[in-house]
Amino acid sequence: MIVEGLQTRLSIQRIALSSPSVKSGLILASILVAAGLVMPGAAAGPRTDDPGASPEIALLRLGYERSLIESGLSPLKQQITTLTALEKQFADARDYDAAITARDERKRLQNELSRLDKELLLLQTRELSLQTSLLPERVKLPLEAATLSGLRLEGGAITGWSKAGASASWKLPALPPGGYEVMLRYRCGVAEGGRLLIKEARFTLTTAIETTLKGPEERSAGILKITDGAGMLTLAAQSLVTNNLMQLLGVELAPSSR
Q: Is this model's pTM higher than 0.70 or not?
């Protein structure tokens, strides 16, 4: 790397001594050297995962590879912007050789930027898959951890769902984004029931709360897409059959990709 750097600097000096367009040659050469310095770390191929590595170690590796690429994106974009300006500057000055060189280098870096974008997407997909694999079969949301509005925790159940808008909210435990089946355990009498709204940062899900004739039952409310795994998940009464929705006994999330 050091030898290559010295050779590059010598090449720049030869350009400055021999080119009739000394100033433009020096400017362009400096940009090309800077572009070359940006690329080696980002251009290096991703490390192949060790089949024997634990998911935790694999996640660390993927995060490191991703951070290396991300750290090189801003300098790379700056080089592309500078080369675009130089291409126009050289063309206006009718220094067409320098303009063509700037154009070719700009296109090369744009292709590299496109490649890195695809590589980042692949790394993020692999990270998400590993994060999901580390989750338990179900993620339990403790009733006692809920923030209640118009409700109360009583006898091991969240009760008092007597008005539309009454809600219970949980802060999610840093879940990876994705689809989760919302499992509800509740008791609902013959004269109770209605509809429940389940929402996260962006997406919502509604489900019918139906009579449980044989005591408490667990039922699936459907699959909710979670975009912010560290945000809030809220259950809110949407409509009531009479004067109470249910007695909520448990809430669990099951990763749908399992």
A: no
